[in-house]
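Hi there. Long-time user, first ticket. I'm pasting a complex I've been working with (about 206 residues overall). I'd like to know whether the download I got is complete or cut off, because the file seemed smaller than I expected. Thanks.
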Amino acid sequence: MDHLHLCPKFEAAFELLGKRWTGLIIRVLLTGPKRFKELSEAIPHMSDRMLTERIKELEAAGILTRHVYPETPVRIEYELTEKGKSIEGIMNEVQKWAEKWVE
Amino acid sequence: MDHLHLCPKFEAAFELLGKRWTGLIIRVLLTGPKRFKELSEAIPHMSDRMLTERIKELEAAGILTRHVYPETPVRIEYELTEKGKSIEGIMNEVQKWAEKWVE
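Hi, the file is complete. Here it is re-exported in full:
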C-alpha cells in the first residue's frame, strides 16, 4: 500500500474546507458578494469572532477577496475568487451526499 | 438572505468529513477493506491514537464497519459501508480542486 501520491494537496484541501463553518460561508458567498453583516445573519449560529477568523483564513488561502468601497460610511464586501467559486463542485457533492445519508 | 434550508445536514456532513485525517482514511478504504496496520502504514504522519479515534467516529456515523475473523490470531478488518463508499464523489471533486488550486 504505497503512500497516496496526492496526499499533501488532498489533505490540505480537506483540512481547509473542513473547518467548522467554512463550508457554509463559501456556500453563502456562492450566491454573490456579501457584507460582513449579511454573512453573519445568514449563518446565525456562528459568532462574529469566528466569522472574522474564517474570513482571514479564506482570504490568506486566496479563496475570497475583500473589496473596500470608499463611500460614507465605507462599505466592505467579500467575494469569492475563481479558486473559491470552483469549490462549488465539492459543495454540490457534499449536498447530494448529505441529503441522501445524513439523518 | 434566508437561512440556508439544508444547513444542518450540509454542516453535519462537512464537519464529519472535514476532520483531520478523515478524508485520507476514507480514500484508503475506497481501495478495499483494510486492517489497522495497513491503514496506519498508508498514512504515516497520523498517530495510531488518532486512527483509533477516527475509526470509532466513522463507525458510529455508519461510514465504516468492523469485521472480526475468528482466526488465530484474530483478524480484524475495516470496510466502508454503502454510505461510506458513496463519499467517493466528494473525494474526486476535492482531488480535482486540490490538483488545480493547491500549491
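A couple of notes from our side: Chain B touches chain A through 46 residues (CB under 8 Å). The first strand of chain B starts at residue 64 and ends at 69.
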